[in-house]
Amino acid sequence: MDVPYKGYTIIANSERQPDGRWLPVAELEVTERGVVTAKPPLRATALETRATRGDADVAAVKMAKAWIDANEREVVVTRPGPPPALEPAHPAPVAAVPPPAAPAPPSARTRPSPPPMLSVPEDPDWTGLCRAVGLDSDDKVQRLSRLLLVQLLLDRLVAVMLAGKLASPGAGPEIGALLADVAPLPLPARIELAARLGLIAPAIAESLAEAGRVRDRLLHGKPPRGKPGWDVSGAEELASAAAGDRCLRRGIEAAQGLLAALRARPTGT
User: Fold this and answer.
1) Which of 40, 128, 200, 237 could disulfide-link to 124, CB 3.0 to 4.6 Å?
2) CA-based nearest residue to 6, from 66, 96, 92
3) How do 8-12 and 25-32 pair as beta strands?
4) Distance between CA 24 and CA 171 in Å, rounded?
């Protein structure tokens, strides 16, 4: 189902989940000057699945339209100026050149800095890379590092828990092969499957889903006005110490709950 909307083409491509329900997924394409560019697909959360693919596709289109409305940009079209005048075949007499003016003071000769969208370090080091994406303080760098570490751990723990559930009792080597099959599943699908199998409590499932939403905001969030598209400083979890700590604390609690469940559950049960 292809739906044109505000210069985009919305392609509903909902995915069937292991439990038979459908996760709304929308792919976006935008055409500029005859070139078709695909945007990252939009995925609903594990709590927003639908019973049929038709219902999921309808939800996917609505989700994509809401995303487009929220991320619209005002496109400024620069009109070309008139072509430069041709020089005459015979140059006119050159007037006397006045003596050069006194050099301007340094403050007057200094050109303004380029806008932020063009300020990319030519040879970026770690500090330059952090500042290029809007991390202008050590606190923000540390906050992002901690959030990503906790999200990586949560992602891995859910995969390990599912692989352990699917493995035969006592079949340690089998878990590695199952992990390779389970890990590529989208995180929302793994969270829902783990919840339906009784491996995680509803509160932990919601904390995992929120961690996935935070990761999506960091990857695809709208940058602040006047900032380049790769700037992440507008994310609430990075801009606000309170929001970052709240998200981090919730993620750590979810990780502790998963680790406790893994220690208490024998393989294959």
Assistant:
1) 128
2) 66
3) antiparallel
4) 36
Phi-psi region of 228 (alpha: psi -120 to 50; beta: other; left: phi over 0): beta
Q: Are 209 and 151 in contact (CB under 8 A)?
A: no
pLDDT digits (tens, 9 = 90+) for 134-146: 787 878 888 888 8
- Cα distance between residue 269 and residue 266, in whole Å: 6
Instruction: Find where tokens 């292809």 sit.
Output: 2
pLDDT tens-digit map of 159-217: 887 777 776 555 455 666 777 777 787 878 888 888 888 888 888 888 888 887 887 77
Q: Amino acid identity, residue 150?
A: V
Q: CB of 57 within 8 A of CB of 64? A: no
d(CA 71, CA 220): 10
- Spatial separation of the C-alpha atoms in residues 170 and 259, rounded to whole Å: 19
Q: Give the integer Cα–Cα distance in Å for 133 and 116.
A: 10
- The rounded distance, in Å, linking the Cα atoms of 217 and 209 is 13
Two structure tokens written together for 252:
């750590």
Q: What is the dihedral of CA 207, 210, 214, 216, to 10 degrees?
A: 130
CA–CA distances in Å: residue 11 to residues 6, 56, 124, 125, 249: 14, 12, 38, 39, 37
The residue written with tokens 């400083």 in the block is 233
Output the DSSP codes for 35-79. EEEEEEEEE--GGG-BSSHHHHHHHHHHHHHHHHHHT--PPPPPP
- Contact status, residue 21 vs residue 51, Cβ threshold 8 Å: yes
Amino acid at 26: A
d(CA 239, CA 130): 14
